[in-house]
Amino acid sequence: MQIRTAKTDREKNELDQLLWDVLWKPLGLPRDIRKSFSLNGRQIEIIVINGGIVIGGLVANWLSSRKIEIRHIAVSPEHQGTSIGRRLVEKLITQVRRPHPVKILTDARNTSVGFFTKLGFKLTGITLEHPDFMAHGISIHEMCLELNSSTNE
User: Fold this and answer.
1) How far apart are CA 83 and CA 137, in angstroms?
2) Domains in the chain and their CATH numbers?
């Protein structure tokens, strides 16, 4: 199993397919829904490859030099519960550490709040309402992890 930044168009396409299959297809959302969630700015796409197949992925966008947001994270259903999601977030943390404090934000589904809490994220108290998710009983909660420096948390 290998965790690294997506490099090729094939890997990026496999990541896009995984995100849709896991996050949006089950909700009946359109195939191109990811475009409506995209942000401007530098993007990081981290993938987990097993047997030549992308089985996990994370997409994050830099919002500023001290703030990054995890936009999407997904693990194939047959590999969920095997710490792949945790390893994706840990890989992101190692890539974004700086000599100055950095905040990692995410808008977590209510079903993912526990996952992010275990990784040290804290609820900010902001809840977002999105009709496509609310129709499925999914609420969105902003969470934050503050990294103090390149040598410690």
Assistant:
1) 26
2) 2-147 (3.40.630.30)
pLDDT, tens digit (0-9, with 9 covering 90-100), for 30-83 = 788 777 676 677 899 999 999 999 999 999 999 998 999 999 999 999 999 999
Q: Give every CB contact of residue 47 below 8 A, 6+ residues apart in sequence.
A: 3, 4, 5, 6, 11, 14, 15, 54, 56, 57, 58
Nearest to 2 by CA among 54, 37, 43, 40: 54
Write the secondary structure of 42-65 as one string of H (helix), E (strand) and C (coil): CEEEEEEEECCEEEEEEEEEEEEC
- pTM for this predicted structure: 0.87
Task: Give dist(CA 119, CA 106) in Å, integer.
Answer: 12
